[in-house]
Automatic annotation (TrEMBL):
Signal peptide: none annotated. InterPro entries: OXD. It comes from the Bacteria. Pfam families: Dehydratase_hem. GO terms for molecular function: lyase activity; metal ion binding. Keywords: Heme, Iron, Lyase, Metal-binding. This is Phenylacetaldoxime dehydratase. Its cofactor is heme b. Coiled coil: none annotated. Belongs to the heme-containing dehydratase family.
Amino acid sequence: MESAIPAHLQTARTRHRRVGDDYAPPYPSFVARHKPSVTRVVMAYFGLQTRGTPSIAVEQAPARLASEFAAADGPTHWDRARYIDEAGFTTVVTVAYWDDRPKFDRWFPPARDRWTGSERTSDGFGTFIEALYPSVEGYETLFSSLDRPEGVAVLADGMSGEVLEHAYWGGMRDRIPLSQTSEMAPSGSARTIRDGARVRIIPHDNVCLIRSGQDWGDTEAAERKMYLGDVEPVLREGMDFLRDQGRSIGCYANRYMTVVGPDGAVTEKSYGMSWWKSLSALERWAESHPTHVRIFGAAMKYLSTLGPAAKLRLYHEVTVARADEQLFEYVDCHPQTGMLNAVEAA
């Protein structure tokens, strides 16, 4: 058993874990391990928002973005997903990951100009960029299996052995290296800067992002029926609550998305991604809100019924970022899009 926090990021604690060294998790889980030379990563979400039948321009925009990813200094990994939001808009989100900030800084300016800046063409759809540049001390990952990394973990050097800090309330915080010495509490208020059609959100400190995914592609008939019939509807109910009512509990925005291939084909993968005022707000929802209690209960029943035979794969990544590690900008998007809600909440 090893700590989720790698040895080179461990430090003398001023804040203690919720469990002791003698804690024994009831099932195995693993975290991504970067090379010690990696000190910062980039998570950049490029969104496209439209209503009604997609135009040719809407269909072509993600392909153009993918071609830009293939250029020099492009991301090490990217994937794409889509969903219909609370206002009825179809949103396609392409998330790209770098583990070399200077490479991103060289690649990003022209791509930004074409996506939300002066070189953007007005084709009747909205676009946005939501990006974080956290230090490796500011985020954590968790996986139920070793052999299929997702998201930022694709950039990692490999996976850990079985880790101690999971399967208890507070494990998410305990896996973030900053938690050893920092409360990671939010401070300040978000504000808006308007630059022509572009709306930039200047955020507060310690905004929290979670991406939490499911992959049922390897399940066989009985397990698939159990997941899609017993677990997924409860998960969707919770995701819809966060989408529609989350601002009352500190969730600025939630997207429950279906992953699609580069050609737009639907996969048997989904993930929820949500922006939170703080890690504490996310923890409170996870620990005590009825919608998440039901998700947790359905998942535990599923996993306890199937045991080691379960082929459903689960993962998540949770990030807490300082204000200077964040970028949010929106063009022609409706007012409830993403972190536009943070200003309304403030």
